[in-house]
């Protein structure tokens, strides 16, 4: 049965560090192979044919062989040989326009460097929350395809609930569809070192990263950089070539104090300091021209005053529902499937002229790529940016609204194309050359999981031949880029290889 929504956990839907010992007792039996996973595999088989046929066309053959030969060539820092190496760092909740505050000099300096790349911003996938997006970045798949459709969600086939803070659940591979970049790397003869990235503690496809650090809190960003350097200092045959680290401070400050707070600025200084420290650490090893580094985030953050609450029980009888999930959205699981149409219709009528919209799962707008998975609730209410759904019980127990003191907090999870949800993407290293990009190829449009073309999201690519800051793109593209940088053959995904190939 789905977990009832009148529980103490419900008020903690706002994102926090995702290992919570208090919830580790929520042990639930898991079946080794779910129907959902089988469906995902079937989807992959279908998608593989279409995606590979369309987006790999003219690229995989001789070009791929040449690329791999090129990237497999060892580089030297003067004393040691290095394989092509990539470091990926995620600053959770780092909104794109935070870069304009003038307090992140190390990141800002990349705009003027020859071997750097910065996108104007990166679009998160919907919903714009942490676990779905970190796993989209890792796999190149939309959440509806990889199956991590929220931080907390119910699977009607497994009859179990995924909860991102439950370490026993997140370590269970049955939840995680697709192939994350660290598995792609390990399967193709590389070693991976992963520090706290969502999904990395589950043996997906039977593969764990060779070096793995599970989430713990708190760990200072500089300490995380030191960990990366420890891995880079290993001998060649034991050294990982794909390294990733997750840094949560900016997200935490944004939630608790809102995006415009001093505390967020303090967290940005901390993040930027880690960038400077990383660059200095690489320079000290003479690795600046050997190692590629990608900095990105999973989503942005919006200011939400605490009087902009939409109370669910004012709209629908809670006794008709088994579970409400998806904060700040409201994903509704009716107790009886036969009630779904009636509940939806009642909500649809009430939503007229209001600051929220309601959809049946199958009618969610196609641009969200959020309809084709049984884990998505049958009814989804999406608020405008700045508003949140709550039950009164949830609100009363929300630690962020605690004390009954009116305050503004930070929330994300909204329409992934809203400016407040925009993420960052910056990179530097030997594979990046500012001003050397060419226009988007005609066949490089992103494709959905069925291989069907759809228009690129966001502004049309402009002539970027001399631009310092490149046009925005969707985060489903990152997986292909990482594969490209490492010389890996990507698994089937929703991105496009042509996009990745034009970056180098
Ligand atoms: Zn996040």
Automatic annotation (TrEMBL):
Xref: Gene3D superfamilies: 3.30.1360.180, Alkaline Phosphatase, subunit A
Lineage of origin: Eukaryota, Fungi, Fungi incertae sedis, Zoopagomycota, Kickxellomycotina
Record key words, sorted: Membrane, Transmembrane, Transmembrane helix
Region of interest (Disordered), residue spans: 1-29
CDD domains assigned: Enpp
Pfam families named in the record: Phosphodiest
GO term, biological process aspect, one: nucleoside triphosphate metabolic process
Full protein name: Phosphodiest-domain-containing protein
GO MF terms, alphabetically ordered: nucleoside triphosphate diphosphatase activity; ribonucleoside triphosphate phosphatase activity
Keyword Transferase: no
Keyword Transmembrane helix annotated: yes
Transmembrane annotation, as ranges: 39-60
């Amino acid at each position: 049965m789905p977990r009832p929504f009148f529980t103490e956990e419900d008020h903690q839907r706002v994102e926090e560090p995702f290992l919570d010992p208090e919830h580790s007792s929520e042990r639930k039996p898991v079946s080794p192979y779910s129907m959902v996973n089988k469906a995902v595999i079937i989807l992959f088989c279908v998608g593989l044919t279409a995606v590979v046929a369309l987006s790999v066309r003219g690229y995989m053959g001789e070009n791929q062989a040449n690329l791999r030969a090129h990237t497999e060539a060892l580089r030297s820092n003067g004393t040691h040989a290095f394989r092509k190496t990539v470091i990926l760092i995620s600053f959770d909740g780092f909104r794109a326009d935070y870069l304009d505050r003038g307090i992140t000099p190390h990141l800002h300096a990349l705009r003027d460097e020859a071997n750097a790349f910065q996108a104007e911003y990166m679009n998160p996938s919907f919903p714009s929350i942490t676990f779905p997006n970190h796993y989209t970045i890792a796999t190149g798949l939309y959440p509806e395809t990889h199956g991590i459709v929220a931080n907390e969600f119910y699977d009607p086939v497994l009859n179990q609930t995924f909860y991102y803070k439950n370490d026993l659940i997140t370590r269970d591979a049955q939840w995680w569809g697709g192939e994350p970049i660290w598995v792609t790397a390990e399967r193709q003869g590389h070693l991976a070192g992963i520090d706290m990235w969502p999904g990395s503690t589950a043996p997906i496809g039977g593969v764990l990263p060779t070096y793995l650090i599970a989430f713990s809190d708190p760990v200072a960003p500089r300490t995380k950089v030191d960990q990366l350097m420890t891995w880079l200092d290993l001998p060649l045959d034991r050294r990982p070539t794909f390294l990733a680290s997750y840094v949560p401070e900016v997200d935490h400050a944004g939630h608790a104090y809102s995006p415009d707070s001093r505390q967020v600025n303090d967290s940005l200084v901390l993040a930027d300091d880690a960038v400077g420290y990383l660059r200095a650490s690489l320079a000290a090893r003479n690795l600046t021209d050997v190692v590629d580094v990608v900095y990105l985030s999973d989503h942005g953050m919006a200011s939400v005053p605490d009087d902009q609450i939409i109370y669910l029980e004012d709209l629908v009888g809670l006794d008709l529902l088994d579970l409400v999930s998806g904060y700040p959205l409201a994903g509704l699981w009716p107790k009886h499937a036969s009630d779904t149409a009636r509940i939806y219709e009642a909500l649809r009528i009430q939503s007229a002229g209001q600051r929220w919209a309601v959809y049946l799962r199958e009618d969610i707008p196609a641009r969200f790529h959020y309809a084709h998975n049984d884990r998505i609730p049958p009814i989804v209410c999406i608020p405008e940016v700045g508003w949140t759904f709550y039950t009164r019980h949830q609100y009363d127990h929300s630690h962020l609204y605690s004390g009954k003191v009116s305050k503004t907090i930070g929330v994300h999870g909204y329409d992934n194309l809203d400016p407040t949800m925009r993420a960052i993407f910056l990179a530097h290293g030997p594979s990046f050359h500012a001003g050397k990009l060419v226009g988007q190829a005609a066949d490089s449009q992103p494709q959905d999981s069925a291989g069907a073309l759809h228009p690129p999201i966001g502004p049309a690519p402009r002539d970027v031949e001399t631009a310092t800051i490149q046009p925005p793109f969707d985060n489903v593209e990152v997986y292909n880029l990482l594969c490209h940088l490492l010389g890996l053959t990507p698994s089937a995904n929703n991105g496009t290889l042509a996009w990745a190939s034009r970056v180098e």
